[in-house]
Write a structure and sequence with these properties.
- With 347 residues, the protein is of the alpha/beta class.
- The protein has two domains: 163 residues, D-Maltodextrin-Binding Protein, domain 2, CATH 3.40.190; 160 residues, Periplasmic binding protein-like II (D-Maltodextrin-Binding Protein, domain 2, 3-Layer(aba) Sandwich).
- Helix content is 38%, strand content 18%.
- It has 14 helices and eleven strands.
- Strand 1, helix 2 and strand 2 form a beta-alpha-beta unit.
- Helix 6 crosses helix 14 and helix 7 packs parallel to helix 14.
- It is globular and about 65 Å long.
Length: 347
Protein backbone atom coordinates (compact mmCIF):
# COMPACT_ATOMS: atom_id res chain seq x y z
CA UNK A 1 0.00 0.00 0.00
CA UNK A 2 2.84 2.41 0.95
CA UNK A 3 4.74 1.63 -2.26
CA UNK A 4 1.65 2.33 -4.33
CA UNK A 5 1.11 5.65 -2.55
CA UNK A 6 4.72 6.87 -3.06
CA UNK A 7 4.67 5.78 -6.69
CA UNK A 8 1.46 7.77 -7.13
CA UNK A 9 3.07 10.91 -5.59
CA UNK A 10 6.23 10.48 -7.66
CA UNK A 11 4.14 10.30 -10.85
CA UNK A 12 2.48 13.64 -10.11
CA UNK A 13 5.79 15.29 -9.14
CA UNK A 14 7.55 14.11 -12.29
CA UNK A 15 4.79 15.36 -14.53
CA UNK A 16 4.54 18.73 -12.77
CA UNK A 17 1.10 18.16 -11.31
CA UNK A 18 2.40 18.60 -7.74
CA UNK A 19 5.16 21.03 -6.67
CA UNK A 20 7.63 20.35 -3.88
CA UNK A 21 8.88 23.42 -1.98
CA UNK A 22 12.63 23.96 -2.16
CA UNK A 23 15.08 26.59 -0.96
CA UNK A 24 14.95 28.38 -4.30
CA UNK A 25 11.19 28.92 -3.88
CA UNK A 26 11.55 30.61 -0.49
CA UNK A 27 11.00 34.30 -0.02
CA UNK A 28 14.21 36.22 0.68
CA UNK A 29 14.41 39.01 3.23
CA UNK A 30 17.48 41.18 2.78
CA UNK A 31 19.39 42.79 5.64
CA UNK A 32 21.72 45.62 4.63
CA UNK A 33 24.49 46.30 7.12
CA UNK A 34 28.12 47.27 7.63
CA UNK A 35 31.16 45.05 7.21
CA UNK A 36 31.55 44.54 10.97
CA UNK A 37 28.24 42.68 11.25
CA UNK A 38 28.87 39.30 12.88
CA UNK A 39 26.10 37.06 14.17
CA UNK A 40 26.24 33.26 14.27
CA UNK A 41 24.74 31.58 11.23
CA UNK A 42 22.84 29.23 13.53
CA UNK A 43 21.03 32.24 15.01
CA UNK A 44 19.85 33.47 11.62
CA UNK A 45 18.72 29.97 10.70
CA UNK A 46 16.26 30.09 13.59
CA UNK A 47 14.41 32.94 11.91
CA UNK A 48 14.61 31.23 8.53
CA UNK A 49 13.16 28.00 9.89
CA UNK A 50 10.42 29.75 11.84
CA UNK A 51 9.14 31.76 8.88
CA UNK A 52 10.15 29.57 5.93
CA UNK A 53 12.33 32.29 4.38
CA UNK A 54 15.98 32.93 3.62
CA UNK A 55 17.97 35.86 5.03
CA UNK A 56 20.43 37.50 2.69
CA UNK A 57 23.09 39.67 4.37
CA UNK A 58 24.22 42.59 2.25
CA UNK A 59 27.44 43.99 3.72
CA UNK A 60 28.11 47.43 2.26
CA UNK A 61 31.32 48.89 3.71
CA UNK A 62 31.64 50.80 6.97
CA UNK A 63 28.57 52.28 8.65
CA UNK A 64 28.80 55.59 6.82
CA UNK A 65 29.31 54.02 3.40
CA UNK A 66 26.47 51.56 3.94
CA UNK A 67 24.10 54.35 4.95
CA UNK A 68 25.11 56.39 1.90
CA UNK A 69 24.25 53.43 -0.35
CA UNK A 70 20.88 53.05 1.34
CA UNK A 71 20.10 56.73 0.83
CA UNK A 72 21.19 56.74 -2.81
CA UNK A 73 19.03 53.68 -3.55
CA UNK A 74 15.97 54.83 -1.58
CA UNK A 75 13.71 54.88 -4.67
CA UNK A 76 14.61 51.26 -5.36
CA UNK A 77 15.89 49.89 -2.03
CA UNK A 78 18.56 47.21 -2.08
CA UNK A 79 17.21 45.56 1.07
CA UNK A 80 14.20 45.30 3.36
CA UNK A 81 15.90 46.10 6.67
CA UNK A 82 18.97 48.20 7.52
CA UNK A 83 21.10 47.55 10.61
CA UNK A 84 24.09 49.61 11.67
CA UNK A 85 23.11 53.29 11.74
CA UNK A 86 24.60 54.70 14.94
CA UNK A 87 23.86 57.91 16.79
CA UNK A 88 26.67 59.76 14.99
CA UNK A 89 24.80 59.33 11.67
CA UNK A 90 21.25 58.95 12.98
CA UNK A 91 19.95 62.39 11.99
CA UNK A 92 21.33 62.01 8.46
CA UNK A 93 19.43 58.73 8.14
CA UNK A 94 16.18 60.16 9.49
CA UNK A 95 16.39 63.36 7.45
CA UNK A 96 16.78 61.24 4.30
CA UNK A 97 13.36 59.70 5.02
CA UNK A 98 14.37 56.14 4.18
CA UNK A 99 12.82 54.34 7.16
CA UNK A 100 9.27 53.35 8.09
CA UNK A 101 7.98 53.91 11.60
CA UNK A 102 7.53 50.64 13.50
CA UNK A 103 6.43 50.22 17.11
CA UNK A 104 7.93 46.81 17.70
CA UNK A 105 6.48 44.84 20.62
CA UNK A 106 10.08 44.27 21.70
CA UNK A 107 10.59 47.95 22.51
CA UNK A 108 9.33 47.45 26.07
CA UNK A 109 12.53 45.50 26.74
CA UNK A 110 14.82 48.36 25.76
CA UNK A 111 15.79 51.16 28.19
CA UNK A 112 14.33 54.56 27.43
CA UNK A 113 17.80 56.15 27.37
CA UNK A 114 18.63 54.25 24.19
CA UNK A 115 15.44 55.22 22.35
CA UNK A 116 16.59 58.30 20.50
CA UNK A 117 13.89 58.38 17.80
CA UNK A 118 10.41 59.07 19.24
CA UNK A 119 8.81 57.93 15.97
CA UNK A 120 10.59 54.53 16.13
CA UNK A 121 11.92 54.66 12.60
CA UNK A 122 15.23 53.53 14.08
CA UNK A 123 15.12 51.06 16.98
CA UNK A 124 18.09 50.44 19.33
CA UNK A 125 19.95 47.13 18.89
CA UNK A 126 23.21 47.51 20.83
CA UNK A 127 25.52 50.03 22.46
CA UNK A 128 29.15 50.39 23.46
CA UNK A 129 31.38 52.93 25.17
CA UNK A 130 34.29 54.21 23.08
CA UNK A 131 37.13 55.14 25.40
CA UNK A 132 40.85 54.89 26.10
CA UNK A 133 42.38 51.47 26.75
CA UNK A 134 45.85 50.95 28.22
CA UNK A 135 48.36 48.11 28.48
CA UNK A 136 48.57 47.30 32.21
CA UNK A 137 51.89 45.42 32.12
CA UNK A 138 53.62 48.22 30.16
CA UNK A 139 52.79 50.76 32.85
CA UNK A 140 53.51 48.37 35.69
CA UNK A 141 56.98 47.52 34.32
CA UNK A 142 57.87 51.22 34.20
CA UNK A 143 56.23 52.12 37.50
CA UNK A 144 54.21 54.78 35.71
CA UNK A 145 50.61 55.40 36.69
CA UNK A 146 48.17 54.80 33.83
CA UNK A 147 45.89 57.67 32.78
CA UNK A 148 42.63 58.15 34.64
CA UNK A 149 41.37 61.24 32.80
CA UNK A 150 41.61 62.73 29.31
CA UNK A 151 43.68 65.63 30.62
CA UNK A 152 46.41 63.17 31.67
CA UNK A 153 47.22 62.57 28.00
CA UNK A 154 48.63 66.08 27.61
CA UNK A 155 51.14 65.69 30.47
CA UNK A 156 54.86 65.26 29.68
CA UNK A 157 55.07 61.70 31.10
CA UNK A 158 52.57 60.51 28.49
CA UNK A 159 54.33 62.03 25.49
CA UNK A 160 54.46 59.63 22.54
CA UNK A 161 52.29 57.02 24.28
CA UNK A 162 48.89 57.56 22.65
CA UNK A 163 47.39 56.31 19.38
CA UNK A 164 43.96 57.52 18.18
CA UNK A 165 41.99 57.02 14.98
CA UNK A 166 41.25 59.65 12.35
CA UNK A 167 37.62 60.80 12.86
CA UNK A 168 37.26 61.36 9.12
CA UNK A 169 37.88 57.67 8.37
CA UNK A 170 37.08 55.78 11.57
CA UNK A 171 33.91 55.30 13.62
CA UNK A 172 35.73 55.04 17.00
CA UNK A 173 37.91 57.95 15.90
CA UNK A 174 34.81 60.08 15.39
CA UNK A 175 33.35 58.88 18.68
CA UNK A 176 36.52 59.90 20.52
CA UNK A 177 36.49 63.31 18.85
CA UNK A 178 32.90 63.71 20.07
CA UNK A 179 34.08 62.69 23.54
CA UNK A 180 36.48 65.62 23.58
CA UNK A 181 33.79 68.02 22.30
CA UNK A 182 31.42 66.82 25.03
CA UNK A 183 34.08 67.00 27.71
CA UNK A 184 35.83 70.31 26.85
CA UNK A 185 33.08 72.08 24.93
CA UNK A 186 33.03 73.91 21.63
CA UNK A 187 35.56 76.44 22.93
CA UNK A 188 37.96 73.98 24.51
CA UNK A 189 38.24 70.78 22.49
CA UNK A 190 40.72 72.19 19.95
CA UNK A 191 43.00 73.40 22.75
CA UNK A 192 43.05 69.82 24.02
CA UNK A 193 43.97 68.53 20.56
CA UNK A 194 46.70 71.16 20.11
CA UNK A 195 48.28 69.85 23.31
CA UNK A 196 47.84 66.28 22.05
CA UNK A 197 49.71 67.13 18.86
CA UNK A 198 52.49 68.75 20.89
CA UNK A 199 52.60 65.57 22.98
CA UNK A 200 53.23 63.46 19.86
CA UNK A 201 49.85 61.73 19.43
CA UNK A 202 49.84 59.14 16.64
CA UNK A 203 46.85 59.10 14.27
CA UNK A 204 45.84 55.85 12.53
CA UNK A 205 43.31 55.64 9.72
CA UNK A 206 41.30 52.93 11.45
CA UNK A 207 40.81 50.85 14.58
CA UNK A 208 42.61 47.75 13.28
CA UNK A 209 45.88 49.55 12.58
CA UNK A 210 45.66 51.39 15.91
CA UNK A 211 44.91 48.32 18.04
CA UNK A 212 46.71 45.56 16.16
CA UNK A 213 49.52 47.67 14.75
CA UNK A 214 50.49 50.55 17.03
CA UNK A 215 49.23 49.41 20.46
CA UNK A 216 51.83 47.67 22.62
CA UNK A 217 49.63 44.58 22.94
CA UNK A 218 50.45 43.97 19.26
CA UNK A 219 53.81 42.64 18.12
CA UNK A 220 56.01 45.61 17.37
CA UNK A 221 53.55 48.14 18.78
CA UNK A 222 55.03 51.05 20.74
CA UNK A 223 51.99 52.93 22.06
CA UNK A 224 50.50 51.67 25.37
CA UNK A 225 47.36 53.86 25.18
CA UNK A 226 44.80 53.39 22.41
CA UNK A 227 41.24 54.46 21.64
CA UNK A 228 39.05 51.35 21.67
CA UNK A 229 35.97 50.09 23.53
CA UNK A 230 35.10 49.44 27.17
CA UNK A 231 34.55 45.80 26.15
CA UNK A 232 38.05 45.37 24.69
CA UNK A 233 39.52 44.02 27.97
CA UNK A 234 36.86 41.26 27.92
CA UNK A 235 37.78 40.43 24.34
CA UNK A 236 41.45 40.18 25.34
CA UNK A 237 40.52 37.59 27.97
CA UNK A 238 38.13 35.70 25.69
CA UNK A 239 40.68 35.30 22.91
CA UNK A 240 43.71 34.98 25.18
CA UNK A 241 45.68 31.79 25.68
CA UNK A 242 45.09 31.67 29.45
CA UNK A 243 41.39 31.24 30.15
CA UNK A 244 40.15 32.88 33.32
CA UNK A 245 43.16 35.16 33.59
CA UNK A 246 42.97 38.84 34.48
CA UNK A 247 42.50 41.21 31.57
CA UNK A 248 45.87 42.53 30.31
CA UNK A 249 44.25 45.86 29.43
CA UNK A 250 41.93 48.27 31.18
CA UNK A 251 39.49 50.96 30.06
CA UNK A 252 39.45 54.58 31.23
CA UNK A 253 35.84 55.34 32.17
CA UNK A 254 35.97 58.47 34.30
CA UNK A 255 33.59 61.41 34.00
CA UNK A 256 32.99 62.25 30.34
CA UNK A 257 35.91 60.08 29.23
CA UNK A 258 33.80 57.87 26.94
CA UNK A 259 31.23 58.30 24.19
CA UNK A 260 28.19 56.03 24.21
CA UNK A 261 27.71 54.70 20.69
CA UNK A 262 24.24 53.26 19.97
CA UNK A 263 23.41 51.20 16.86
CA UNK A 264 19.93 50.95 15.37
CA UNK A 265 17.83 48.88 12.99
CA UNK A 266 14.96 50.01 10.78
CA UNK A 267 12.56 48.89 8.07
CA UNK A 268 13.45 50.50 4.75
CA UNK A 269 10.74 52.37 2.87
CA UNK A 270 9.85 50.64 -0.36
CA UNK A 271 10.39 47.13 1.00
CA UNK A 272 8.37 44.64 -1.02
CA UNK A 273 7.66 42.58 2.07
CA UNK A 274 7.00 44.90 5.03
CA UNK A 275 5.50 42.17 7.20
CA UNK A 276 8.60 40.00 6.96
CA UNK A 277 10.80 43.05 7.48
CA UNK A 278 8.99 43.86 10.74
CA UNK A 279 9.30 40.26 11.88
CA UNK A 280 13.04 40.43 11.24
CA UNK A 281 13.31 43.61 13.31
CA UNK A 282 11.45 41.85 16.15
CA UNK A 283 13.87 38.94 15.86
CA UNK A 284 16.92 41.24 15.95
CA UNK A 285 15.60 42.77 19.17
CA UNK A 286 14.74 39.36 20.61
CA UNK A 287 16.67 37.17 23.01
CA UNK A 288 18.32 34.75 20.56
CA UNK A 289 19.88 37.45 18.38
CA UNK A 290 20.66 39.79 21.28
CA UNK A 291 22.39 37.04 23.26
CA UNK A 292 24.76 36.47 20.36
CA UNK A 293 25.85 40.12 20.11
CA UNK A 294 28.40 40.43 22.98
CA UNK A 295 30.84 37.69 21.94
CA UNK A 296 30.56 38.45 18.22
CA UNK A 297 30.46 42.24 17.98
CA UNK A 298 31.77 43.04 21.48
CA UNK A 299 29.10 45.55 22.41
CA UNK A 300 26.20 45.42 24.85
CA UNK A 301 22.77 44.16 23.74
CA UNK A 302 20.03 46.78 23.93
CA UNK A 303 17.52 44.24 25.27
CA UNK A 304 17.82 44.62 29.04
CA UNK A 305 16.42 41.14 29.70
CA UNK A 306 19.32 39.39 27.98
CA UNK A 307 21.94 38.04 30.41
CA UNK A 308 25.54 38.94 29.66
CA UNK A 309 28.19 36.24 29.17
CA UNK A 310 30.52 35.63 32.10
CA UNK A 311 33.54 37.28 30.47
CA UNK A 312 31.50 40.47 30.04
CA UNK A 313 30.33 40.44 33.64
CA UNK A 314 33.88 39.94 34.89
CA UNK A 315 35.89 42.25 32.64
CA UNK A 316 33.60 44.93 31.20
CA UNK A 317 32.20 48.06 32.80
CA UNK A 318 29.83 50.68 31.46
CA UNK A 319 30.70 54.35 31.79
CA UNK A 320 28.68 56.00 34.57
CA UNK A 321 28.86 59.42 32.94
CA UNK A 322 29.48 58.95 29.22
CA UNK A 323 29.34 61.83 26.77
CA UNK A 324 25.89 62.02 25.18
CA UNK A 325 25.34 64.43 22.28
CA UNK A 326 21.97 64.62 20.56
CA UNK A 327 22.02 63.17 17.02
CA UNK A 328 20.75 66.39 15.42
CA UNK A 329 23.55 68.36 17.10
CA UNK A 330 26.09 65.86 15.76
CA UNK A 331 24.59 66.07 12.27
CA UNK A 332 24.70 69.87 12.28
CA UNK A 333 28.33 70.08 13.45
CA UNK A 334 30.02 66.80 12.48
CA UNK A 335 31.83 67.95 9.34
CA UNK A 336 32.89 71.25 10.88
CA UNK A 337 34.28 69.52 13.97
CA UNK A 338 36.19 67.04 11.79
CA UNK A 339 37.56 69.77 9.51
CA UNK A 340 38.75 71.83 12.47
CA UNK A 341 40.29 68.74 14.05
CA UNK A 342 42.10 67.93 10.79
CA UNK A 343 43.49 71.47 10.52
CA UNK A 344 44.65 71.34 14.13
CA UNK A 345 46.14 67.84 14.33
CA UNK A 346 47.23 66.83 10.83
CA UNK A 347 48.25 70.07 9.12
Amino acid sequence: MKKTFFAFVLFFVLYGLVSVPCAADRKVVRLMTHDSFAIGEHILKQFEAQHGVSIEILKSGDAGAALTQAILSKNNPLADVFYGVDNTFMSRALNAGIFLSYDSPMLDRIPAALKLDPENRLLPVDFGDVCLNYDKSWFSARKLSPPTDLTDLTKPQYKGLVVVQNPATSSPGLAFLLTTVGRFGEDGYLDFWKKMRENDVYVSNGWSDAYYGQFTRAKGGTRPIVVSYASSPAAEVHYGEKKGADAPTAAVLGRKAAFRQVEFVGVLKGTRQPDLARLLVDFILGEAFQSDIPLNMWVFPANSRVPLPEVFRQHTQKADQPVLILPDVIEKNRERWIDRWTATVLR
